[in-house]
Amino acid sequence: MKNLKFEIKWAIIFILSTLGWMVVEKSLGWHDEKIADHGTLTNIFAVVAITVYVLAFRDKKASFFHGQMSYMQGFIFGLIMTLFIALISPFSQYFISEVITPEYFPNVIRYAVESGKMTQEAAEAYFNLKSYMIQAAIGAAMMGAVTSAVVAFFFKSKN
To answer: Are the beta carbons of 57 and 143 closer than 8 angstroms?
Structure first.
């Protein structure tokens, strides 16, 4: 586990950033009175997520690889970090849904139905804890892999 300390540390930082972002979203009303804007505005989190990955890669390259990191070393680091994030994501989604914003699902279901975007049954099937826990894990894995591939390219040593 000592060899994975950077990956675990940055996965935890990423999850804490996610939790912090959810508090921001809720405080800005994106989970209730401004829920119509949530689908678009939540994408701003990509800036936070990419920033965490960049800081993680910078830390790993400087502290572990002593300034010399190949593309493959960086990519593997990012994938391992992503694996930890994906494994933790369902638990963080549970915390988000039960503690930070328990009213989100009823609000988004009501909005989806009243706006004519979905039927009641479809909205309830999509907007629920189980669905979001699965989406969190799969989304973290997919986006983390892509982000790792791109960020590793920029952090690879030139020689």
So the answer is: no
Nearest to 104 by CA among 45, 35, 41: 35
Q: For the whole model, what pTM was predicted?
A: 0.94
> Do residues 61 and 158 make contact, with C-beta atoms less than 8 angstroms apart?
no
Of 97, 128, 91, 83, nearest to 25 by C-alpha is 97
pLDDT tens sequence across 52-82: 999 999 999 999 999 999 999 999 999 999 9
Distances in Å between the Cα of 112 and the Cα atoms of 2, 45, 57, 62 are 46, 22, 39, 47
The two structure tokens encoding residue 154: 């920029």
pLDDT digits (tens, 9 = 90+) for 81-128: 999 999 999 999 999 999 999 999 999 999 999 999 999 999 999 999
Instruction: Give the three-state DSSP class for 119.
Output: coil
Taken as a whole, the chain contains a residue count of: 159
Q: Residue 82 and residue 79: Cα distance in Å, rounded?
A: 5
Residues 144 and 53: their CA atoms lie apart, in Å, by 9
Q: What is the mean pLDDT of the chain?
A: 96
Q: Compute the distance between CA of residue 105 and CA of residue 126 in angstroms, rounded to an integer.
A: 10
